[in-house]
Specification:
Layout: H1 6-15, H2 20-25, E1 34-37, E2 40-43, H3 60-71, E3 80-86, E4 91-96, H4 108-120, E5 127-132, E6 137-141, H5 162-175, E7 180-186, H6 202-205, H7 233-247, E8 251-258, E9 266-272, H8 276-286, H9 289-302, H10 309-323, H11 346-358, H12 364-367, E10 395-401, E11 404-412, E12 418-425, H13 433-449
Parallel strand pairs: 6-7, 7-8
Antiparallel strand pairs: 1-2, 3-4, 3-12, 5-6, 5-9, 10-11, 11-12
Helix pairs in contact: 3-13, 4-8, 4-9, 4-10, 4-11, 5-7, 9-10
Length: 454
């Protein structure tokens, strides 16, 4: 599995000892190890020097003063704002232009993924299985694994695959003396419309998003890595599975139809997804719209609101309220942020990060945040003038739609303070998209580099 380069993990290791360990590291003294030799002992070199800090803690006045010039950048349009929270001391430092909520775009995924972690648990996995209600009959049952793949890949996290499931199913059938079967498929874990009514009509037809299904392979793509999606992801998965069964020596007859798998059916084989924690990291790192929509429905199921996207939103809102994230002024319609009808206060977006900093069981929200200039959707960012100080220090979820640009995440400033932030515009002129994104990069780089003491 491909993982980011070692340099990234040095930054990650430093950033994720939140919040007290980072603050305390400033004054810690490294104790060198010693190696034995024939003439005595010699100090071993430090692997990673302790983090250094300087200056005094940021103040509200200092933060607002430091951000004033870049917040006036015309590329941000009329409606833009920033919210900054001192996670080391538990207090808000700045709330500029935040009177009205914003279209969050993909920063919405922070609310979806933290809700999934809180309701389902980071160690949970989703199961795709085959069952047999009668001799010679096989049903492929989807368990809502967002990353189910056709065959093994080198990507992280490791995927469950239909190939593995077909091989195990064929072995089970042969052990029973069965060489020919009919095949049905059950994708009934999720309910309601497969496409969100609040999405643009072209999202599904152009492959920007899939028809969300509890049973799909490669997120419903006709070919891995391609945009085009199958009209019925579940049927496409069943068709692919039948081909793999035949390759494994099992004859498959008849057509493939949707069925309800009886609870009394005998189990044949199953494959387990990556852990939810790893899935959350992947979704936020790569801004995976389809994975986020699956997790939204899983939240609905986990909160007894059902497996539709409307049930997912109900479960999400209830979960966020329990976590202390205020979404009473928010309008939420999906889990990915594709809907332009979503309206979320910046304080709520920053709130997901704020809560994750204090709860170890939600740590995957932080460890999956892209690192400025290094990984995921921030790999090619923070290269312009004024943004360099944020490289390797800022960790943030990105959000992008036409006219909408946002970042929500955290940075450790030079005083050792952990600053949680959300910054956005949903009125950027389309012809100034790159300039608007660069302005957001500079805003967060300022937070990472300034003492902001006023």
């Amino acid at each position: 599995m491909a993982r980011p380069p070692r340099a990234v993990f040095v930054t990650l290791a430093v950033m994720l000892t939140l919040p007290t360990a980072l603050v305390g590291a400033a004054g810690a003294q490294a104790v060198p190890g010693r190696s034995q030799s024939g003439t005595g002992t010699t100090p071993a070199p430090l692997v990673l020097p302790p983090a250094k800090t300087e200056g005094v803690a940021p103040t509200s006045t200092g933060v607002q003063k430091a951000l004033a010039a870049v917040m006036a950048d015309s590329s941000l349009g009329k409606h833009h704002g920033v919210y900054v929270y001192d996670a080391s001391r538990g207090k808000a430092l700045a709330s500029i232009g935040t009177a009205k909520p914003f279209v969050p775009a993909s920063t919405m995924k922070l609310l979806t993924t933290i809700s999934a972690l809180a309701t389902i648990g980071a160690d949970h996995w989703f199961t795709t299985e085959t069952v047999s209600p009668s001799r010679g009959s096989v049903i492929l049952v989807g368990g809502g694994d967002p990353l189910l793949a056709l065959r093994p890949t080198t990507e992280f996290p490791a995927r469950a695959t239909l190939q593995e499931l077909a091989t195990s199913t064929a072995q089970s059938l042969r052990s029973q003396g069965v060489a020919s079967v009919t095949l049905g498929y059950d994708a009934n874990l999720f309910t309601g419309p497969a496409a969100n009514a609040k999405w643009e009509p072209n999202y599904v037809t152009e492959g920007i998003a899939a028809r969300t299904s509890a049973l799909w392979v490669n997120e419903g793509r006709v070919s891995p890595g391609m945009a085009k999606r199958a009209p019925s992801p579940a049927l496409a998965a069943a068709t692919a599975f039948a081909g793999l069964l035949r390759t494994a020596g099992i004859k498959v007859t008849g057509s493939f139809k949707p069925v309800d798998a009886p609870a009394t059916a005998d189990g044949l084989a199953q494959v387990r997804s990556a852990s939810l924690g790893d899935i959350v990291e992947y979704i936020n790192l790569h801004s995976d719209n389809d994975g986020a929509e699956v997790l939204l429905r899983q939240v609905g199921i986990a909160t007894d609101n059902g497996g539709s996207y409307t049930g997912g939103v109900k479960g999400l809102r209830a979960t966020l309220a329990k976590l202390g994230i205020d979404v009473t002024k928010a309008q939420i319609y999906d889990g990915s942020g594709l809907s332009r009808a979503n309206q979320v206060p910046l304080e709520a977006l920053a709130g997901a990060v704020r809560v994750a900093v204090t709860k170890p069981e939600l740590r995957h929200l932080l460890s999956g945040l892209p690192i400025a200039g290094f990984t995921g959707s921030l790999e090619d960012r923070f290269a312009g003038p004024g943004s360099e100080p944020g490289t390797g220090i800022v960790r943030a979820k990105t959000g992008t739609l036409t006219g909408v640009h946002s970042l929500a995440g955290l940075a450790r400033d030079r005083t050792g303070t952990i600053l949680v932030f959300a910054v956005a515009t949903d009125s950027a002129p389309p012809d100034k998209a790159l300039a608007a994104r660069a302005a957001l990069d500079r805003i967060t780089a300022i937070l990472a580099s300034c003492g902001c003491a006023g």
